């Protein structure tokens, strides 16, 4: 039986995480590559198809909102893992802990003393001009002064082999269920390699999450619920999965009622008080009395109960001020201001179109830059300059001139690549990394992550809604 032939694998022009520029395997991948070389193309294909079937049987599917076909898809799991050694992970861990600590202090300050604005570290219009700033929270402090209990920052590795933070996700970071289920599938796919490589476990995530949620409540044995927009939400699999794994209640807004400023769940046995809500509903929809009056996803009075300290909401409303891509550009200054430290994990160089000099540079160099809408996500509202047409560039020039606050731009980074199974062979595909952090008394970074992979050849857009897939991320103990 013929074996896989990797001699034609191209590692030139990009930072490849399995091979160096001379096609020599990197130390953290050596054992895995030895195993891979013993496989036939047919065996590789069988393993990949078995993985696809496993995902379908587990219900690991999602909806794409702009897909008129209304078909649920799996988030394709490529069976070649991303492998990170312990030293590299420790660097990521320290950098993320530093960043999350500073961002939490920033949110606390923004809604209270606003020293960061008074000291001119960030312009006030960067904060107050966005709907994600909630004036209703001014003077409010959440339990333990923690706002961002769950964080999923997006990182990339550039052509220089260094990690950069691409953006922060503090509102309702998603994808952790795929990290957990990917691991269960890959453990069955390569059982012997786990023991040999000493891969750090991630299966205690839901236990840590439950402990984190319970620790935020004043009640001795709090009732925890996961608030979902419902079965038609693209991430419903994750909502139901996390509730089931934590032993928490899965509720929709209509399942809750507020009485005397306390929150109750409607059950067949009557009302049951709810103490902590892990909400997967955006700020604007959580309470029609305060925010979107037409929202059917939230619960009237929920925000009032939260402000009175009678229920804990996770993540805290108002954290979206940090997710704004224009605020992202100020994070190096924010870390220095609150912690007196230099940033461990750098940002990508960012041009703020609301600043005149930056705007001029972007308009003059739009064909070389990646332009992003500051309030968009999922790979939408973006122009990849080097791969765009003159017409597309002109359309974005008009948009930037009309509303400069709504856009930032960055140089195009050559994302690192990891070998992936493509049509019975192995080719390099670009990846990013979304580690997950939990914050209560301290900041815990889960030793694994969701690696998202751009499956289309040459693409750097890894979002599932844009045709991306995922990989299991193996963090080694050594």
From TrEMBL:
It holds the Pfam family CP_ATPgrasp_2. Gene3D superfamilies: 3.30.1490.270, 3.40.50.11290. Residues 81-454 form the Circularly permuted ATP-grasp type domain. PANTHER family: BLR5612 PROTEIN, SLL1039 PROTEIN. This is Circularly permuted type 2 ATP-grasp protein.
